[in-house]
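Q: My labmate handed me this sequence with no annotations at all. I'd like to see what the chain might look like in three dimensions before we decide whether it's worth expressing. Could you predict it?
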Amino acid sequence: MVKHPKYQAMDDARQDVIPIAFKEFCRDDFKLNRNDPYISKNSEDKPIGPRPRPTFEVVNKENKSVAIFYPNGYSECFDKFFREIFDKIVQRIEEAANLALKEYEGLR
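A: Here is what I predict for the chain of 108 residues:
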């Protein structure tokens, strides 16, 4: 099933703001890895449904995963020391998604 355009707009906003929010709140102790989905060149293998989107993984200096962000709004923190930064990033991401929804609905 394909997502409604308003949800696509929210996902687009999240996808765009995740790297920006990371730069806003993270120190040099962490790195953001963008993991793009595999998309087959064969048209018969193309998925039916929502557009494949990248995931964004935050790793520390030891290359250990501390958090992951998805453009659909799901995110997970794996490190209690990263939690405060994580919460700020999530808040920034959801602000962008809500703004995109308001713009889609013509409320802005």
